[in-house]
């Protein structure tokens, strides 16, 4: 029995880190925007909360409906990331251009929602499989929060080296990640 629990814990841990890598990529790009440490803490915490809420909603719905919704969430997340990344990269060439979505207020909620859409899809399948819900949600939230913090802190360091070109790099990362979601 304890061997089964260990195997399930390891599987959930790997799944949590894989889900958190999306948050890491996005956070690396956001960290290049010269964010303060308090903002970085808030963004990571918000992303962690969304990585708890979205799979929880997915688990609940997964018990009720089939997995056909999963593909639509991946497409929506991919399109949002392509749009945000393209706008971020192009705005680096224009001094007066405003960023479309910044990690403040509603923009922070949009960013956290976008990066956690894939965890919703995972939640759908976990709801069908009957996994230990509380453990999965805690691991998903903690790993995405920690990986977000690491990504933003690394992004701050990269921004110091690259200056204004870091926005182009950050936008390219988001654009590429969105395209990867759309086209596999």
Note the topology.
Blueprint: H1 2-31, H2 37-62, H3 69-91, H4 105-129, H5 133-162, H6 165-183
Helix pairs in contact: 1-2, 1-4, 1-5, 1-6, 2-4, 2-5, 3-4, 3-6, 5-6
Protein name: Putative manganese efflux pump MntP
Family: Belongs to the MntP (TC 9.B.29) family.
Subcellular location: Cell membrane
Please name the defining characteristics of this protein:
Mntp/YtaF; Putative manganese efflux pump MntP; 0% strand; membrane; 184 residues; mainly alpha
Quick recap:
By secondary structure, this protein is mostly helical.
Instruction: Detail the poorly predicted runs.
Output: none
Percent of sequence in beta strands? under 5%
Main sheet specs: none
The ordered string of helix (H) and strand (E) elements is HHHHHH
C-alpha end-to-end distance:
37 Å
Q: Given the helix and strand composition, which structural class is it?
A: mainly alpha
Helix content: over 70%
Mean pLDDT: 77
Overall outline: globular
What is the number of helical segments per DSSP (H or I, 4+ residues)? 6
* Radius of gyration based on Cα positions: 17 Å
Strand segment tally? 0
Summed up, the domain count is 1
